Amino acid sequence: MATHHCLLLLLQLSLVLLLGSIRSSVSYQRPPARETVSVPLAEDADGLTPQQVHISLVGPDKMRVTWITDDDAPSTVDYGTSSGAYSHTDTGSTSSYSYVFYDSGRIHDVVIGPLNPSTVYYYRCGSNPTREFSFKTPPAQFPMKLAVIGDLGQTGWTNSTLKHLGASDYDVLLLPGDLSYADFYQPLWDSFGRLVEPLASARPWMVTQGNHEIEKIPVIEPRSFKAYNARWRMPYDVSGSDSNLYYSFDLAGGAVHVVMLGSYTDFDSGSAQYKWLVGDLAKVDRKKTPWLLALVHAPWYNSNEDHQGEGEEMRKSMEDLLYKARVDVVFAGHVHAYERFDRVYNNKKDGCGPVHITIGDGGNREGLATDYLDPQPEISLFREASFGHGQFSVVNGTHAQWSWHRNDDDEQVVADQILLTSLASQSACS
To answer: Do residues 389 and 362 make contact, with C-beta atoms less than 8 angstroms apart?
Structure first.
């Protein structure tokens, strides 16, 4: 059945590639920014009601459930494979943080499992009977679909993007930084958590930090990423990292390895992140792991006038590591537009280099980055300043389909797509 499905995906792609190229050549009028939305606590909620629920992967068969309550409540998750019937209960921990005059709610962190792949689980947080959630675990083999969004924010365009994501039936979401755009005003973190909860509680969201997560105020709040680290704990320790700002994880039974890097922590050759990355990539066996992906926030390749050169120092430090490991794709955010590059290395086309994709256009309040360098560099194959999201559908160990879905008057339009072949399957790059 899986083989039949893979063949259907490949046939479908071959039919729509031409249509996609025609659409992309049609003149398109870019949309204006939309106002920030605020999502209040539900009217029927009380201090014990779970809110801002989101899940993330922990190892091959476990899931972290994170939520917030205004008052003290048990850090327990009841779960099972039937609605209302919870055969298992796991217990975790509770934390909180203060930021200037703001005090967070109780942040609950519970790891549940072991779980079976491709299975729907129903769960409730803190044994609270008022709200039941459900999620589906990712498959243990191909095919599988990854959703990719950057610079999400919480605006009218964010709502449009989330609507499209909800209809995509993805398995795991990847977000290369800039989540809430709280920018020091901590209640916006709570609003963001409530905004994304319908999706983030149903599929694992794997995120890394952006510049809008730094939130450092000299003397008053000297510690960077305080809210981000408290609210969006990722499985860094499982991958041997000492920091929530960079980590890795496996998908599809280890056939896909994803590296999440930190653009705003040290990355030079003497740094902890660099040394961790060397060790992490050395463990990847490309015979067992045909797909290798990386995410950063500030793009290493960028032909937009915005944020020119801001990822250059990190590129100089780490590009050799990714190139030698034969990373297939590098996703980035930061620039509020979409751009897809050829396979590149050291600023030149290279058939054994990664495809670099900038997708910092989830729906941020700052609007789109509309001005590009002219002429367009030869290594830049498609670029457009529009809001949208991406889908990376891994068909098998050799082929994957990438598609970028533009938010076109609230309807998603596939404006760019390509069939990629894994570098591990190409003898010239082995």
So the answer is: yes
Please state, in angstroms and rounded to a whole number, the distance separating the CA atoms of residues 313 and 214. Answer: 19
Please report, for residues 288, 317, 366, the alpha-carbon distance to residue 283 in angstroms, rounded to integers and kept in the order given: 11, 20, 40
Structure tokens given for 183: 């920018």
3-state secondary structure of 422: coil
Tokens of 185: 């005003």
State the Cα–Cα distance between residues 401 and 317, nearest whole angstrom. Answer: 29
User: Cis bond leading into 375, ω under 30°?
Assistant: yes
- β-bridge pairing 348-349 and 338-345: antiparallel
Closest by CA to 15, choosing from 338, 352, 419, is 419
What is the pTM for the complete model shown? 0.93
> pLDDT band at residue 88, thresholds of 50, 70 and 90?
very high
Helix axes 272-282, 312-324, angle to 10 degrees: 20
How are beta strands 291-295 and 256-260 bridged, if at all? parallel
**Active-site pick, 257, 297, 307, 356:** 307
In one-letter notation, the amino acid at residue 59 is G
| Cβ neighbour number for residue 220 with a 10 Å cutoff | 8
Q: Enter the DSSP assignment of 300.
A: S
Give the distance, in angstroms, between the CA of residue 219 and the centroid of all CA atoms in the same chain: 32
Cβ-in-10-Å burial (0-12, 13-18, 19+) of 184 comes to middle
* Residue type for position 157: W
**Active-site residue 307, yes or no?**
yes
Host H or E run for residue 381: strand 380-384
The token duo for 214 is 């730094």
Characterize 400-411 residue by residue with b for buried, 16 or more Cβ atoms within 10 angstroms of its Cβ, and e for exposed.
bbbbbbbbbeee
With beta carbons less than 8 A apart as the criterion, state whether 311 and 298 touch: yes
Q: Is the pLDDT of residue 410 over 80?
A: no
Q: What is the distance between the alpha carbons of residues 213 and 227, in angstroms, rounded to a whole number?
A: 8
**pLDDT for residue 390:** 98
The length of the chain in residues reads 430
